[in-house]
Write a structure and sequence with these properties.
alpha/beta; Aspartate Aminotransferase, domain 1; Aspartate Aminotransferase, domain 2; 2 domains; seven-stranded mixed sheet; three-stranded antiparallel sheet; about 15% strand; globular; disordered N terminus; binds pyridoxal-5'-phosphate
Length: about 400
């Protein structure tokens, strides 16, 4: 830490970039992976089953099915839910493109509901206004780890006989109304990308309480193939299997599963560390006029995947871009979550236009994601706080 006179003088420049998210890998993780490398199974074997059982237990779901990525898992969930050509599926634009892409993989039509301006999660009122006779499912995203309004979403789903698939890529370890995310609805997706709560390099999981969904998910991840004697139309002998539908190779390896199982044992500690930094940020920022800190919903206990500040642009002399660039110059690795999905050229070509979700579009202009992950230190968090305060006070209309 030193004041770099060659750069802007109103903030301290860190000597190295602090990323917005980062994995935590320790000796226990390395040993778990090494053990698999020296074992009989490299791809789907006993460790995948163990990891699935551990995630099911953690989330309180009956079943868990592992996949090669969160995206593959969500695709499989869309298939298992029976989403197909001609269907409409309601989701939020404040998410990573994968959420909506999975609807398109099934040749169905994504319908974007606007967000709640306080929680930034999908708005139940907006969902209700978009339901048609073609609506098949709702995919809420627990944005930043804070569960969406599942009471209201559940009620809408029951009234209209819709499947609910939760995108909980941010929300492993989050609670809603006292219950762990993962056991609440039809299906829930988790991602194990390195910036998420626990990692398998790449990987994902669907949790469900429904044995039929589990059966479809298992077949979908391996080409639509079944070896269960009761599924087979013919049976030529012990070698025989049948492909029932067009599935994929979406399998997780035992190497990944061993890492995941080892990581899961540390999840509570990871979330505790995240919460400690969130408390520091909230405390430091709560009285600043130039930003709004994250809103905490009463029923939700967030797992704090991301810490998103909202700039109060009427209190600032410059726009979000200038503020963002100042963070980068100070070596604070900020990010923006998210560019509304339908802003992407691919979605524009499908006919989606700006103006569709005004609250999400306004939010997009004002947000910055600050670094938050368990492997950062208290000093890192203090750097983020001092740089944020310096930048905002420098550009404040009051200075
Ligand atoms: C990370 C993420 C995904 C995709 O997960 P992958 O494991 O990267 O395929 C989907 N939705 C959201 C909200 C995510 O953050």
């Amino acid at each position: 830490m030193n004041i770099n006179q060659n750069d802007e003088e109103f903030y301290r420049v860190r000597s190295s970039l602090l990323p917005y998210g980062r994995q935590w890998i320790d000796e226990q993780d390395c040993q778990a992976v090494e053990k698999v490398l020296n074992s009989e199974f490299l791809t789907t074997g006993p460790m995948v089953g163990k990891f699935e059982a551990a995630v099911a237990q953690y989330t309180g779901a009956k079943y868990a099915v592992a996949f090669s990525s969160g995206t593959a898992a969500l695709h499989a969930a869309c298939f298992a839910a029976g989403i197909e050509e001609g269907d409409e599926v309601i989701t939020t634009p404040m998410t990573f493109a994968a959420t909506a892409n999975c609807i398109l993989y099934q040749k169905a039509c994504p319908v974007f509901a606007d967000i709640d301006p306080d929680t930034y999660n999908i708005s139940p009122a907006s969902i209700s206004s978009l339901i048609t006779s073609k609506t098949k499912a709702i995919i809420p995203v627990h944005f930043t780890g804070q569960p969406a309004n599942m009471k209201a979403i559940h009620k809408i789903a029951q009234e209209h006989n819709l499947v609910v698939i939760e995108d909980a890529a941010h929300a492993l370890g989050a609670f809603y109304n006292g219950k762990a995310v993962g056991g609440l609805n039809d299906m829930t997706m988790f991602s194990f990308h390195p910036v998420k709560h626990i990692t398998t390099g790449e990987g994902g999981m669907i949790t469900t309480n429904n044995p039929q969904y589990r059966d479809s998910l298992l077949k979908f991840r391996t080409h639509g193939i079944s070896r269960n004697p009761q599924d087979l139309v013919e049976n030529h002998g012990p070698w025989y299997y049948e492909m029932e539908f067009l599935g994929f190779n979406y399998r997780m390896t035992d190497i990944q599963a061993a890492l995941g199982e080892s990581q899961l044992t540390k999840l509570s500690g990871f979330i505790q560390r995240r919460k400690k930094y969130v408390q520091m940020y909230n405390e430091a920022f709560k009285d600043l006029k130039e930003l709004t800190i994250p809103f905490q919903d009463q029923l939700s206990d967030s797992s704090w995947h991301l810490y998103v500040i909202r700039l109060n642009l009427d209190q600032l002399k410059v726009g979000r871009k200038k503020i963002f660039e100042s963070f980068l110059k100070a070596n604070i690795g900020v990010n923006v979550h998210y560019i509304p999905v339908y802003y992407h050229p691919f979605y524009k070509k499908l006919g989606f236009q700006k103006g569709l979700c005004p609250a999400a579009e306004k939010l997009y202009e004002e947000i910055i994601t600050l670094p938050l992950h368990p492997s950062m230190t208290k000093q890192d968090a203090e750097d983020v706080i001092s740089v944020t305060k310096s930048i905002l006070s420098h550009y404040s209309v009051h200075s």
